[in-house]
Write a structure and sequence with these properties.
Layout lengths: L2 H8 L5 E12 L2 E12 L3 E5 L6 H8 L9 E9 L2 E2 L7 H7 E4 L10 H14 L9 H11 L3 H4 L12 H10 L8 E5 L7 H14 L4 E5 L3 H7 L2 E6 L2 E7 H6 L4 H7 L5
Parallel strand pairs: 3-8, 3-9, 6-7, 7-8
Antiparallel strand pairs: 1-2, 1-4, 4-5, 9-10
Helix pairs in contact: 7-8
The structure holds adenosine-5'-triphosphate.
Length: 268
């Protein structure tokens, strides 16, 4: 066992990958999130549902501090990721981005080769001397692509441009390229909305493969997807968390009328 591994084992592992306390967020004078208290269990897949404009993406973007690039966003409250408040003044953005990977609606691989896409942020973070995958470039590429079930399909065309892949493959690649910097948390903002049903099924299968090793928080408009692909589910409405429960429980016996109205398609 290396000294780094020994030190890591001394650290208590938090039960929650995300612990949000009294999060309020304003875009200028418009308040988009109200007193959000949310805990996302480590290693599990949690989905976030709610009608358009209820604040799902805003919340997700707060967990990797993307919102702060907009000069007019103000935040109160705290978000602990793996036990550390990412809004503490001492916490650097690069540290947050390393721990928290994000996948967007439309796959956005860089217009470079498949191989270089995988190595891109690893190279960036390795320069900073952080804890990243220590293998050779070939090992990193193979392991990342294997993890997202893409290796066998692309191993003979690693030098081809990533943008030539199908949308499903591009989305898997976008997940794969996060892995070499060893993130703890993967945020996914409607990752299947650009995919056909077969691509959607393949990405959902991948989520279950990643479960356990990574904590996954996925925003989806697709009720069936939330039900199939998550263990806990959060329902938001007008910037507030209405309900957070085991997914099956939320879909079978929701506690709140607003939740059942939404699930049954009465609005949103
Ligand atoms: N960059 C921004 N500037 C100003 N207002 C914003 C910005 N982004 C989102 N909003 C507003 O904040 C509220 C929450 O938006 P958000 O995108 O988080 O909702 P959402 O639940 O993810 O919606 P959708 O399901 O349509 O993606 C909305 O009223 C939206 O108009």
């Amino acid at each position: 066992m290396t000294a780094v591994q020994a030190a890591a084992l001394q650290q208590p592992v938090p039960e929650y990958a995300i612990d949000t306390k009294k999060l309020n967020l304003w875009y200028g004078t418009f308040q988009a999130l109200y007193d959000v208290d949310l805990r996302v269990r480590q290693g599990m897949i949690t989905s976030m549902i709610g009608p358009s404009g209820c604040g799902k993406s805003t919340y997700l973007r707060s967990v990797n501090r993307i919102n702060e690039r907009l000069g007019y966003v103000r935040i109160e409250g705290s978000i602990d990721v793996m036990g550390q408040n990412i809004y503490d003044p001492g916490v650097e953005l690069i540290q947050v981005r390393k721990q928290v990977g994000m996948v967007f609606q439309r796959p956005n691989p860089l217009p470079i080769s498949i191989r270089d896409n995988i190595l891109f942020s690893h190279r960036l973070h390795a320069k900073g001397g952080g804890d990243v995958h220590q293998g050779t470039a070939d090992e990193i590429v193979e392991e990342s692509l294997r993890t997202v079930l893409l290796w066998d399909k692309v191993k003979d065309r690693l030098k081809r441009k990533a943008t030539e892949l199908s949308l499903e493959e591009q989305q898997k690649l976008c997940i794969a390229r996060l892995l070499p910097v060893k993130p703890k948390l993967l945020l996914m903002d409607e990752p299947c909305s650009a995919l056909d049903p077969k691509g959607t099924e393949a990405v959902e299968e991948l989520l279950w493969e990643l479960r356990g090793q990574y904590t996954i928080l996925i925003v989806t408009h697709n009720m069936a997807q939330a039900r199939r692909a998550s263990e806990e589910c959060i329902f938001m409405l007008m910037g507030k968390v209405v309900e957070h429960a085991l997914t099956e429980q939320m879909f079978v016996t929701p506690l709140h009328k607003e939740t059942s109205d939404y699930i049954e398609g009465r609005y949103g």
